[in-house]
Fold this sequence. Notes:
- The structure holds three protein chains of three kinds.
- By secondary structure, chain B is an alpha/beta fold.
- Chain B has helices spanning 9-20, 35-45, 59-72, 82-87, 89-97, 122-126, 140-154, 184-191, 215-247, 272-285, 303-310, 331-342, 363-377; strands at residues 2-7, 24-27, 52-55, 77-80, 103-108, 133-136, 163-168, 176-182, 254-257, 264-268, 290-295, 297-299, 315-320, 348-353.
- The longest helix of chain B is centred in the middle third of the chain and has 33 residues, at 215-247.
- The radius of gyration of chain C is 18 Å and the shape is elongated.
- Chain C contains two helices and four strands.
- Chain C folds into two domains: 1-32, no CATH class; 33-101, Alpha-Beta Plaits (2-Layer Sandwich), CATH 3.30.70.20.
- In chain C, a hairpin with a 2-residue loop joins strand 2 (64-67) and strand 3 (70-74).
- By secondary structure, chain C is mainly beta.
- Classes of the chains: A alpha/beta, B alpha/beta, C mainly beta.
- Chains in contact: A-B, B-C.
- The A-B interface holds A 22, 25-26, 29, 34-39, 41, 60-66, 68 and B 5-6, 32, 117-118, 138-139, 168, 170-172, 174-178, 271-272, 274-275, 277-278, 358, 360-363.
Amino acid sequence: xxxxxxxxxxxxxxxxxxxxxxxxxxxxxxxxxxxxxxxxxxxxxxxxxxxxxxxxxxxxxxxxxxxxxxxxxxxxxxxxxxxxxxxxxxxxxxxxxxxxxxxxxxxxxxxxxxxxxxxxxxxxxxxxxxxxxxxxxxxxxxxxxxxxxxxxxxxxxxxxxxxxxxxxxxxxxxxxxxxxxxxxxxxxxxxxx
Amino acid sequence: xxxxxxxxxxxxxxxxxxxxxxxxxxxxxxxxxxxxxxxxxxxxxxxxxxxxxxxxxxxxxxxxxxxxxxxxxxxxxxxxxxxxxxxxxxxxxxxxxxxxxxxxxxxxxxxxxxxxxxxxxxxxxxxxxxxxxxxxxxxxxxxxxxxxxxxxxxxxxxxxxxxxxxxxxxxxxxxxxxxxxxxxxxxxxxxxxxxxxxxxxxxxxxxxxxxxxxxxxxxxxxxxxxxxxxxxxxxxxxxxxxxxxxxxxxxxxxxxxxxxxxxxxxxxxxxxxxxxxxxxxxxxxxxxxxxxxxxxxxxxxxxxxxxxxxxxxxxxxxxxxxxxxxxxxxxxxxxxxxxxxxxxxxxxxxxxxxxxxxxxxxxxxxxxxxxxxxxxxxxxxxxxxxxxxxxxxxxxxxxxxx
Amino acid sequence: xxxxxxxxxxxxxxxxxxxxxxxxxxxxxxxxxxxxxxxxxxxxxxxxxxxxxxxxxxxxxxxxxxxxxxxxxxxxxxxxxxxxxxxxxxxxxxxxxxxxx
Lengths: 193, 402, 101
């Protein structure tokens, strides 16, 4: 088990990669971890590539730099694979998670020979089956927790339920859909062989 | 008497404001400090605090309104960044010379240009001679704790000066991290009610604030203001001690990390100090006696104490996140070097420009700084000019050579 | 603040001035005899004056006192001799006297 897990998120402005990073920090905090979640700010606009980061540790986090050698990378939008070097610095014993509807044969050539584990998740399918709307954050969050093992899955689901109950106190039907999305994402995420 | 939670630096300042419940907050939004007045306005709308929020039309007006409110007898605060503070410039000096205990949350961002919104200290460093007390933070916890202490310092009868509570834009203002929040009751008792002796709206008070001062009086007034800044030294330490008794958090003029026996020291301000601490540990693991002096209070400048704390070192890197275009280095470099001279230190020094306009600093960069200090002390390194950290200069050096 | 404006002058030490040079009493301008600046002096010709009181609000230095609805003579301790009163008087009841050699 690592003392420090570093995760880098790639998304496009408006897709919620920053929110996903902050949600992960939040749930990791709930699970008793030291956390740091932050976006990298530039002239981002809707659709522009953005990066966000998570550090999750059992020890105090003091460093304030961006993450250059992440243990894990999460790509919220697969069109970024053509323009952004998403595997830059990614540790070989780590993994990359990509939200895509495309098969592994189409994705793998875009990863510049990254030798580590590659996971794919069709977050849109998960969202449509459970929420009826496309919010890729929720399934991506579940998948990255499973892959990175930054916390126990049962603890993750329990803490997410608590925080979603609070967030959707007046919309119990949304709560149910979100919990289903988390569980379905845990089943749907698959490792490319 | 505390709650462990997680929040960003801006949220931490807003939480401090909620606990203090100041009388008046005039503010104008500017990135990266915008969230602070947003959070405060939300708290007011939710009835959590009864602060009078004034949505002013500019930062010049924000500071002017804060001055008016403070002179009238209110506890007044504001928040800004970068060009926002630049637009307050004139009034910053008037607030200080009128001896008004205003507290400002400054989220450090570079002054334009080139146009940029990221972390740099050029805004507050430019205002270092405006007569404001300046206190800096490494992370969300520190900016929260500093803000809670600010009013006690500003409003103390021996001080009566405005206080700027600074944190690094985005790097801490927008980063969510673990934080310990202190309970409302003890904090409210610690901060206390603001009870000024003289103020414009006091019944039967006849008072004029900010009169024209002809030369035969103005210099004497400036001397009195300078003395108040000197007296602030003791008040800052007394307030910190009382805060420590309440919370267990220790604060002083600066923090020494592995400095006692250090041969190679870095002097810096703000979030880079956390990164430097990791570098110190990495260098110590390699047998290099590295240390850090993190400046918390820059105004008043604790020159004697800094000189004492550093004078045993062999080589010292003074890190500036603000280019002064003096051709000699940055403001911290100038002041720390002067302090070392007065302390009769014999250390080699190098003033390093880093992190301008949000340029990221890695642990490995700071390790390179320590490695350069080792070479500097051994006579294997020489800097003809003050170097930039991480500059593209056509060489592979982390510290620029040309 | 115990220090009174009348006790402050150009010999006062910095320690004895008020904090921020704040003024802690009203009407300290009375202590400052700006009448000394005057070169031309307004003279009130009572027999021409109809007591319309137009000169009173025009005076920028409040140097024309009114008592029982009637103007009094000029406050020469503070009148700077600007001549506005003479200009606005509809009855020629104020004349500006040139400085004497």
